[in-house]
Amino acid sequence: MVLYAAIGQPSAIVYLGERLDNTQAYEQLRTLRSRTLGDGSPQVEIPITLLCDPGSGSTAPPGIALHRDGEACQSGLVVKAVTHSTDALQIVCGDERENVLVTHDFRIDATNTLVCTETTITNGAGTPLVVDWLSVLCIPLDPMLTDAILLSGRWAGEFKQTRQKLSRSGFVCENRRGRTSHDQFPGVVLCESESNERAGQCIGVHLGWSGNHRIRVEKLADGRCLLQVGELFLPGEIRLEPGQSYTTPTLFTAFSSTGLSDLSASFHGHYRENIEDSRVKSSSRPVHYNSWEAIYFDHEPVRLLKLIDEAAEIGIERFVLDDGWFRGRRDDTAGLGDWTVDDTVYPEGLEPIIDHVHAQGMEFGLWVEPEMVNVDSDLYRAHPEWILGPEPSRQLPFRNQFVLDLARDDVAEFLYRQLDALLARYQIAYLKWDMNRDLNHPHSSDGAPSAHRQTHAVYALLDRLRTQHATVEIESCSSGGGRIDFGILKRTDRVWTSDSNDALDRQLIQRGASNFFPLSILGSHVGPARCKITHRKLPMSLRAATAMFGHMGVEADLFQLSADERDELKQAIGLYKQHRELIHKGRFVRVDASNNQNIVGVVSADSRQALFSIAQVATNPDNLPGILRFYGLDPRYEYDLQVLWPAKERFPQAESLGGVGWNGPETFSGELLVLHGIQLPLMHPEQCLIYELRAST
Ligand code: DGJ
């Protein structure tokens, strides 16, 4: 990225692309891209400045919109100061007439070709300043970036990847759900029309924010194109009193000239090196058992003890007790807010359960949903005034629950005390932190909009708990993948990727999520044979192979498994344990595949080990599937290639093609594996094959 920043002048991004060696290139960059003036246009070209502020005379959509209680504030921002070090840059822009200061902070992660940016606006005047819109930046897009890749979706169908051509009308994606949302991921990839997983230029941006957001791509009439990303404000939400500031969430911007998988590698690398917390960094991600799909609200200590024994038996390392353990919570109409153990169900408290989990050599985890309350709860009876928005009868019903107004100090303090008491009393290694409704009525009792404050209050509560309980890990769940972003990941360690455990859907959900997030954080569970959400029945071999390529867990009634299924699951858990360092720390690649297959791989940093997973998600359009080239291997090495999965039974049809690797390791040259590739065996839908490769020289 090259920025222009001269004192007294507007500042702008003048280059975003491959790293330049010529650091003095600014004048040349400008000359090379200087444009003739079009008829019917201003006599000078209006630059796309860092915020396209209205004071610049630009008719492009501004990246900043301000007023002072209804009176226009047409800021014209020029550079006041620039400071920089090797990996940081600060550009301070100001508007003396309007008394507004805007500071852009850039941090450069050179290893991962990624830049983090935050923008701060400060009201220097004596009257309040209302901020209607503040994009973190206005990024001019190179005309070669003709395609946009978006991740949209729905509950139980998150991260659906769609690719569209940028049309003259551009597009706007807005999320007003008050959480990151299942349907509008706060990120986008822009790429060339020829870009694919391993070639082509692309940039990816992600806003690390768990509230409302807006992404805007605008094509200007003069042929230029720009991108804006920022928090979406409700009317009047950001009102700065004299001297007050607002800082945007962090915008993560990465670039790759070698395709989409490398772009993802930048986000994954940045996460690992800069966001991942020390409590998980150096340890292996343990295999989870989650009780939800096995028992729902039907908690019975005796049955649970048996489930715990069985979980330990198949290799589970962390047992997570989901919803239903606390006072009055016999279904989803009651109990939220009362975070003490239900003694009608657990007369001896949770100790016997937790002790048993520990005795079986596992860690214990517990589900909570602190931000919510049911009307049928002691908390609501005591404090009906604590909910966000109007009284319940005037609110949109949503899973029988209401959002607590966390921006109130008394509410935040109460929740902290409740959670702190739980963590102090019980040996809890892990919290699954759920959040199961949108902020449909995001106004505090004083009438002020509160989506912004609510999001910061959730962050503050998490931060406070994590400081006090430095070893407790936290999972971000929001009806599955409704709150997955780098903002929440700064204070949580894993996400529940989706409520759907349907392995065929999961293959694509996890592929979509991998655009920005590493496999190590993507909670991925083996569900019951018949998925509770899609009602599709899928074999254990596919369910287990799908869960292995994530942070593996199991979420099914273990007593419903057949002996064969149990064996196969146990084998998969063993393989996951054997390979999890590679799966979680290796370089992740998505392979462009036709024939209705999802192919992904992980390759170790030294390229000496790799796993490639090929899942057949629908029938083949051709007689035979294609060729798989093992990108990421080192052509100089020889590799032993073998089928790692399915471990139990080979595909009957594999024999017809000679079945490479089915009878143990076979050695091939790395050069041939990368350049020539392997003919994949005929696969039927719902089959999944994992190849293991190990360098032998
Ligand atoms: C929604 C979550 O996504 C599920 O995994 C489960 O924890 C339920 N909430 C419990 O109510």
What does this entry look like structurally?
With 697 residues, the protein is an alpha+beta fold. Helices cover 21% and strands 29% of the residues. The strands form eight sheets. Strands 5, 6, 7, 8, 11, 12, 14, 15, 19 and 20 form a ten-stranded antiparallel beta sheet that branches. α8 runs parallel beside α9 (451-468), α11 (503-513) runs parallel beside α12 and α12 runs parallel beside α13 (563-585). The longest helix is centred in the C-terminal third of the chain and has 23 residues, at 563-585.
* Class based on secondary structure composition and strand pairing: alpha+beta
Strand residue content: 25-35%
Number of helices: 14
Helix content: 10-25%
Detail the poorly predicted runs.
none
Oligomer: single chain
Q: Report the biggest beta sheet as strand number plus sense, adding barrel if it closes.
A: 10 strands, antiparallel
Q: How many strand segments?
A: 38
How are the elements arranged and paired?
Elements: E1 2-4, E2 12-15, H1 26-32, E3 64-68, E4 71-72, E5 78-84, E6 88-95, E7 100-109, E8 114-123, E9 129-134, E10 138-141, E11 147-154, E12 157-165, E13 171-175, E14 184-191, E15 202-208, E16 213-219, E17 225-231, E18 238-240, E19 245-247, E20 250-256, H2 260-275, H3 278-281, E21 288-290, H4 292-295, H5 301-314, E22 318-321, H6 351-359, E23 363-368, E24 372-373, H7 378-382, E25 402-403, H8 409-425, E26 430-433, H9 451-468, E27 473-476, H10 486-489, E28 494-496, H11 503-513, E29 522-526, H12 540-548, E30 551-554, H13 563-585, E31 587-591, E32 597-603, E33 609-616, E34 627-628, E35 638-645, E36 666-669, H14 670-675, E37 678-679, E38 688-695
Helix pairs in contact: 8-9, 11-12, 12-13
The protein binds (2R,3S,4R,5S)-2-(hydroxymethyl)piperidine-3,4,5-triol.
